[in-house]
Design brief:
Elements (H helix, E strand, L loop, with lengths): L10 H4 L9 H12 L4 E5 L5 E6 L5 E7 L6 H17 L4 E2 L12 E6 L2 E8 L15 H18 L18 H8 L6 H19 L7 E4 L8 E3 L8 E4 L6 E4 L2 H10 L11 H10 L4 H28 L4 H19 L2 H12 L24 E3 L19 H11 L4 E3 L21 E2 L2 E5 L3 E4 L4 E7 L2 E6 L2 E6 L13 E2 L4 E5 L3 E9 L8 E2 L1 H8 L2 E2 L18 H8 L14 E5 L2 E4 L4 E4 L12 H13 L9 H12 L7 E5 L2 H16 L4 E4 L8 H5 L10 H4 L4 E4 L17 H14 L6 E4 L15 H11 L3 E5 L14 H4 L6 E4 L10 E5 L1 H6 L14 H16 L2 H20 L5 E7 L2 E6 L10 H13 L2 E2 L1 E3 L5 E4 L7 H17 L25
Parallel strand pairs: 4-9, 11-12, 26-36, 28-29, 28-30, 30-31, 31-32
Antiparallel strand pairs: 1-2, 2-3, 3-6, 5-6, 7-10, 8-9, 12-14, 13-22, 14-21, 15-20, 16-17, 16-19, 17-18, 18-21, 21-23, 24-25, 25-26, 27-33, 32-33, 34-35, 35-38, 37-38
Helix pairs in contact: 4-7, 4-8, 5-6, 5-9, 6-9, 7-9, 8-11, 9-10, 9-11, 11-13, 15-24, 16-24, 20-21, 25-27
C-alpha cells in the first residue's frame, strides 16, 4: 500500500505528540483574558490535547476549554468544528460539544501563548452526564446505542469534504502496520511484544485482502467510551452526546464502528460476543458490505494493538500525563479480549449477525470409509443433548458420563458409538458457572470396542503424525484425528496417501475425536462456547459421512420465540427480552438447549427441585394404572386429603381439591359468600391472588394489572398495604396499620355492607417477603369475625414450609384462619391446588349447588400431592429452608453494607426479597437498576426476577432443596454483578461474601 504526502499533521514525521503543558491556573487566566470568563478550571484528561472544565462560582459548568495540540493546523481544527456542527444539525437527537459562538455568530476561539508556543484555544459546549470511562459493565442496550450513534455519525459524514481531513494519524487503522512497527519496542515485556506483533501481522493481512474495496469517507474515529456522553435523563447508562473531534480524518468508513467496539472490551464482564449488539445496531442505520464485515474484526485487533504500543510510547514521552498512564492496563485488556477469539471466528459471527451471505463447505463423499471393516449399520449414535433421556436424574453431572454411556451401548452389541457434530453436549456443562461452558461439538467422538484401523477416506497428504494426533488432507478440508497418547500414526508427516491407505491402528476400547477443518483454520477446540459456535462451525464440516453416517445438516435458525408469539397469547409474558430456551431442570438448576446450567432462584413451583425422581416415578406409575375424576372412588384422594387436613390446626378439617392457586382463591371467596351471605370482600393493596374473575378482582398489584385499583368491582374494598419498610407507617409505627384496617371493616359494617371475608397473604409475598406487623392479622381477623365475616389466608406462595420456622404463614402471626388456599408447591410442578376449611363452611357450599373439578383430586394429582408431602418430610426440606435460608439471608445482609443500592433484606427461610433503592431516605425504587441486574445475573448463570409494585425487589424463592454451595454462588455472583454495574460503595473493596475458587471464573471466550 502506498501513501500520499499529508498536507496537515503526519504522525510519522512528528512521532511524539505530547499534550500542551497548561496548568489549571493558566487555563483560568486564558478563560478570563481571551474569553472574558471569571471561572475556575478543572483539568480533564486527554491523550494529546489539554482540556479543562470551566466552572462558575456556584458550581455550574460554563464551558469546556480545549487547547489543541500545537501540531494541529487551523485547517484541521476548522474541519473538526464544522463536522461537529454538521452532525448537530443533522441529528437533533444527539448532543454535540460544538464550539460556542459569540453574539455575532462567530466561533469563540483564540490563539494563546503557552510555554510550548502558540496554540489554538476554543470554548466548547459542556455536555452534562459524564462519559462511559471506567470499567462499568455495558448492558446490551448501552452497547447497541453506542453502535447506533456510530452509524448516525457515519451516515451524516458520508458526504463531508474538507481539506482538514487529509491527515496521517497514528489512530487511523490505514497506518496501523507502520505505527505498530514504529512503536513496538516501547512495550517492555517480551511476551506482550511478540503477541502484539503477531496479531498485527495477521490482522493486517486480513484487511489487505479487502482494503481496495472498502469505502472511504470522513470519520470521527474516536467514538469510544471516553467520548460518548451519558444521557442525564436516563436512569441507566445510555449515550446521547459526542465530544472530541480531534481524530477526525478521511479513512475507511467501517473504522467508525471498529473504534467503539474496541473500547467496549475493557469493561467488566465484556467479551467479544457482547459487542455484536452494537454491530447489529450500526448496520440497521448504515448497512455494512460483506467486505466491511470481513474487515471489521481485524480492524478491532489493529485498533487495540495501536492503543497498546501508542500508550506505552506516549507514557515514555509524556510521563506525567495521568490520563495516559491510567489507560495502560485497560488498553492491554482490550487487546487481550480482541485476540481471545480468532478473527476468522468473529468475522463469521459478524456475518451471521448481519444476515449476510455465508458459504460453508461440506465433507466430500469418502472413497473409503474411515473405519475399516466396521459396518455403519452397527454404529450407534450417542445423544448427549439436553433432551436426551440418558441425561435424566442428573446423569449429565457425572464426570465420565459420556464414556459410561458409550460403554453401555457397546456392551449391548454396537460395533461403534459416535456422537453428533454441532450438538450441545450437556455432559460438558458444570452445574454452576459464571461463564457459559464449551458445549458445542466441532467434530464427533468415536468409541470402538474391538481393535480397528483407520484408513484414508481419499487421496491426500499426511500433514501431521505424532503420538496422539494425525492430520491428513481430505478434499477441501484437513481431517484431524485426536488419539490416545500411546497411539502412533502409521505414516510419517509429508507422506502422500491414497484412498484406503492405513493411517493408524487402534487397540480395543479406543476413543477417537474426529474433525474436519478448513485448511487455513486456526486451532479448533473439540467443544466451543455457544455464543461463538456459529463462528467456529463455519470453519468445519460434519465428519459423520466419513464413517458412513448421515451428516447432521445445518441447524435451522431458532425461530421458536417468534412461533410462540405468533400462536401463544402475548398476555402470557415470558422472562427476559432474549430468553434462553429452557429444556431441562434438575434440583435447583434449569438447563438451556445450548447446554448451560442456570441456578434457579425463583421457582417456588417446584419445592422438591426440578425432575424429582420420586414425583416422576409416582406420577408415571399412577398414569399406567388409572387417571379419572374425583367422583369415582379410589384410595389416593382419601389418603391425600387426610394428610393435608392433618397439617392444619383444628377446626380446619375439610378439603376441596382444584388445579391452581387462582381457582383456590376463587373457590375460597365463593365459600365465604355462601357461608355468610355477604358479597363484600376486604383485601390488601399491592397483592396478587390470581387470574379468575374473583381472584383477579381482589388482586391489586399494579404490576400485574396497572388499572387494578380503578377497575376493581364495587364489592371489593382495599386496606393499606402493611409494609413496614416503605409504606405510610414504617418501623415501630407499623402497628398503626391494623387499627386503620379495623376501622375500614367497622365502617363497612356501619354502612350496612359488612364484609363477608378478609383475604390476604399471611406473609406478604408479592411485596418481596415482607412480614406483616406483629399482631396485624389477630386484630383484623377479630374485626371481620365480629361482623360475621370469615378470614381467608392465601398460602399459595409462602406456605408448605418455605418460611422455614413455620409450615404455614399464618403461624407466624399466631392466628387460625377460617379458609386456607394452597397451590404451587403442592404438586412440585403438577397442577394442583386446595382449599381447606371447616366442615360447617364447606357444607354451606351446597346452597350454591355441588362442586366438581375434573382433574382436581384425580388419582394422578392426589398421588403427586402425597409424594410431595412424603419428600418434604423425608428430605427435611423445611429444615433446609431454616438452615440454608439463614445462611443466605445473612450473606445478603452483609452485602448491604457494601452496596448502597440494597435497601432491605426481607423474608424468612427460603422466601426472601432484596429491595433495591436509589436513596436510603426517600426509598426511591431502583426499578431500572433491578431489571439490569437481573439481566446481568442471567449472563452469570443465575435466574432471578423482580417483584413488587415498583419491580425493585429481587424475589428469592428457590426450590427448597437448594444447598449451601448454590446459595454461596448466588451471593458471590450478586456481589460481582452489583460491583460490575457500578453499585459498590466508594471505599468498599473487600467482599463480605465467602469466596469459592470455582466461582472465580474469568470471562474468556
Amino acid at each position: 500500500m502506498t501513501y500520499e504526502p499529508s498536507l496537515n499533521v503526519d504522525f510519522f514525521t512528528r512521532q511524539a505528540l505530547p499534550a500542551p503543558r497548561v496548568t489549571v491556573d493558566q487555563a483560568r487566566r486564558i478563560a478570563a483574558e481571551h474569553f472574558g470568563l471569571a471561572v475556575r478550571a478543572e483539568s480533564l484528561g486527554s491523550q494529546q490535547d489539554a482540556n479543562f472544565l470551566l466552572v462558575h462560582d456556584d458550581g455550574t459548568p460554563a464551558a469546556v476549554l480545549k487547547i489543541a495540540n500545537p501540531v494541529f493546523t487551523g485547517t484541521e481544527i476548522d474541519a473538526q468544528d464544522t463536522a461537529a456542527d454538521l452532525i448537530a444539525d443533522a441529528q437533533p437527537g444527539l448532543r454535540l460539544a460544538t464550539v460556542l459562538r459569540d453574539a455575532d455568530g462567530n466561533r469563540r476561539t483564540a490563539t494563546v501563548d503557552t510555554d510550548g508556543g502558540p496554540v489554538t484555544a476554543r470554548l466548547l459546549h459542556h455536555l452534562p452526564g459524564g462519559t462511559f470511562s471506567g470499567s462499568r459493565h455495558l448492558a446490551p442496550r448501552t452497547a447497541a446505542a453506542m453502535g447506533r450513534i456510530a452509524g448516525q455519525v457515519s451516515t451524516t459524514l458520508s458526504s463531508f469534504r474538507h481539506a482538514g481531513l487529509d491527515r496521517v494519524l497514528q489512530w487511523d487503522p490505514r497506518h496501523a502496520d507502520r505505527v505498530v512497527a514504529r512503536l513496538l519496542d516501547h512495550v517492555p515485556e517480551a511476551n506482550r511484544r511478540a503477541a502484539v506483533e503477531a496479531a498485527t501481522a495477521e490482522a493486517w493481512a486480513a484487511v489487505l485482502e479487502v482494503a481496495d474495496r472498502l469505502p472511504r469517507q470522513a470519520v470521527h474515529l474516536d467514538l469510544t467510551d471516553d467520548n460518548l456522553v451519558r444521557s442525564p435523563h436516563s436512569r441507566l447508562p445510555l449515550p446521547d452526546g459526542i465530544i472530541d473531534f480531534g481524530d477526525l480524518t478521511d479513512t475507511w468508513a467501517v473504522c467508525e464502528l471498529a473504534m467503539p467496539l474496541s473500547s467496549m472490551l475493557h469493561h467488566d464482564g465484556m467479551e467479544p460476543h457482547h459487542v455484536l449488539t452494537a454491530v447489529r445496531a450500526f448496520h440497521e442505520v448504515r448497512p455494512l458490505s460483506a467486505d466491511e464485515a470481513a474487515a471489521l474484526w481485524p480492524l478491532v485487533v489493529l485498533r487495540t494493538a495501536t492503543l497498546v504500543v501508542s500508550g506505552r510510547h506516549q507514557a515514555a514521552v509524556d510521563g506525567d500525563n495521568a490520563y495516559v498512564n491510567a489507560a495502560l492496563d485497560r488498553e492491554w485488556r482490550m487487546f487481550e479480549q480482541a485476540t481471545a477469539v480468532p478473527a476468522a471466528v468473529m468475522t463469521n459471527l459478524i456475518t451471521k449477525t448481519l444476515g449476510l451471505p455465508r458459504s460453508r463447505t461440506t465433507a466430500l463423499a469418502p472413497v473409503q470409509l474411515l473405519v475399516a471393516e466396521v459396518d455403519p449399520v452397527g454404529i450407534r449414535v450417542l445423544d448427549l443433548s439436553v433432551e436426551a433421556d440418558t441425561m435424566d436424574h442428573g446423569a449429565w453431572l457425572e464426570e465420565t458420563a459420556d464414556d459410561r454411556l458409550a460403554a453401555t451401548l457397546l456392551a449391548r452389541g454396537a460395533a461403534a458409538v459416535a456422537t453428533r457434530y454441532g450438538q450441545a453436549r450437556l455432559t460438558a456443562a458444570p452445574a454452576l458457572s459464571a461463564v457459559s461452558p464449551a458445549t458445542i461439538a466441532t467434530g464427533i467422538e468415536l468409541w470402538l470396542d474391538e481393535p480397528a484401523f483407520l484408513q484414508a477416506p481419499g487421496d491426500g497428504e499426511m500433514l501431521a503424525a505424532v503420538p496422539g494426533h494425525a492430520a491428513v488432507t481430505c478434499g477441501p478440508h484437513v481431517l484431524h484425528l485426536s488419539l490416545p497418547d500411546t497411539v502412533r500414526p502409521a505414516l510419517p508427516a509429508a507422506t502422500p496417501v491414497r484412498a484406503g491407505d492405513r493411517l493408524v491402528a487402534l487397540p480395543a476400547g479406543t476413543r477417537v475425536h474426529i474433525s474436519l477443518q478448513q485448511h487455513d483454520a486456526p486451532t479448533i477446540p473439540p467443544l466451543v462456547r455457544p455464543e461463538y459456535a456459529a463462528g467456529w462451525l463455519a470453519l468445519t464440516a460434519d465428519p459423520a459421512p466419513l464413517i458412513g453416517l448421515l451428516a447432521a445438516g445445518t441447524a435451522p435458525e431458532d425461530e421458536l420465540l417468534a412461533r410462540r408469539e405468533a400462536t401463544f397469547a402475548t398476555a402470557q409474558e415470558y422472562y427476559y427480552d432474549n430468553p434462553p430456551r429452557m429444556e431441562r431442570g434438575w434440583r435447583h438448576h434449569m438447563v438451556s438447549a445450548e447446554g448451560r446450567s442456570y441456578l434457579d432462584m425463583v421457582n417456588n413451583v417446584t419445592p422438591l427441585g426440578h425432575a424429582h425422581p420420586r414425583v416422576e416415578q409416582a406420577i408415571s406409575r399412577q398414569l399406567r394404572r388409572l387417571n379419572t375424576n374425583s367422583r369415582f372412588h379410589y384410595a389416593a384422594v382419601v389418603e391425600f386429603t387426610e394428610r393435608l387436613a392433618a397439617l392444619l390446626p383444628d377446626p380446619l378439617d375439610t378439603v376441596f381439591l382444584v388445579n391452581s392457586g387462582s381457582e383456590a382463591v376463587d373457590l375460597a371467596i365463593r365459600l365465604a359468600i355462601g357461608a355468610t351471605g355477604r358479597h363484600d370482600v376486604v383485601a390488601l393493596r399491592e397483592a396478587y391472588h390470581g387470574w379468575t374473575y374473583a381472584s383477579d378482582a381482589v388482586s391489586t398489584s399494579l404490576q400485574d394489572n396497572p388499572n387494578a385499583l380503578a377497575t376493581r368491582p364495587a364489592w371489593v374494598h382495599t386496606v393499606d398495604s402493611p409494609n413496614s419498610y416503605r409504606g405510610r407507617w414504617r418501623g415501630p409505627d407499623a402497628g398503626n396499620y391494623a387499627p386503620e384496617a379495623v376501622q375500614i371493616i367497622d365502617d363497612l359494617a356501619a354502612s350496612g355492607r359488612p364484609a363477608g371475608a378478609f383475604l390476604s397473604e399471611p406473609y406478604y409475598g408479592n411485596a418481596g417477603g415482607v412480614a406483616l406487623p406483629d399482631g396485624y392479622l389477630e386484630q383484623v381477623y377479630a374485626a371481620v369475625r365480629r361482623h360475621g365475616g370469615l378470614a381467608i389466608a392465601d398460602e399459595i406462595q409462602v406456605g408448605y414450609g418455605r418460611l422455614g420456622n413455620w409450615f404455614w404463614g399464618f403461624e407466624q402471626q399466631q392466628v387460625i384462619p377460617d379458609i386456607v388456599c394452597v397451590a404451587k408447591a403442592m404438586g412440585n410442578g403438577h397442577p394442583l391446588g386446595a382449599v381447606i376449611t371447616t366442615r360447617a363452611i364447606a357444607d354451606r357450599y351446597r346452597d350454591q349447588g355441588y362442586f366438581f373439578s375434573s382433574t382436581g383430586g384425580s388419582p394422578v394429582s392426589s398421588t403427586a400431592g402425597l409424594t410431595v408431602l412424603d419428600a418434604l418430610r423425608d428430605e427435611d426440606l423445611q429444615g433446609n429452608a431454616v438452615r440454608t435460608g439463614a445462611r443466605l439471608k445473612g450473606a445478603l445482609q452483609a452485602l448491604a453494607a457494601h452496596h448502597s443500592l440494597i435497601g432491605a433484606v426481607h423474608g424468612s427461610g427460603l422466601y426472601l426479597g432484596l429491595e433495591l433503592v436509589r436513596d436510603p431516605i426517600t426509598l426511591e425504587p431502583a426499578t431500572e437498576e433491578t431489571a439490569e441486574l437481573c439481566d446481568r445475573m442471567l449472563d452469570l448463570g443465575v435466574i432471578v426476577q423482580p417483584t413488587g409494585d415498583h419491580l425493585n425487589i429481587l424475589k428469592i424463592k428457590p426450590p427448597l432443596c437448594v444447598d449451601l454451595t448454590a446459595v454461596d454462588y448466588f451471593t458471590h455472583t450478586l456481589d460481582r454483578a452489583l460491583t460490575e454495574l457500578g453499585h459498590r460503595n466508594n471505599g468498599s473493596t473487600s467482599s463480605p461474601i465467602r469466596h469459592h475458587p470455582d466461582f472465580d471464573t474469568v470471562s474468556r471466550p
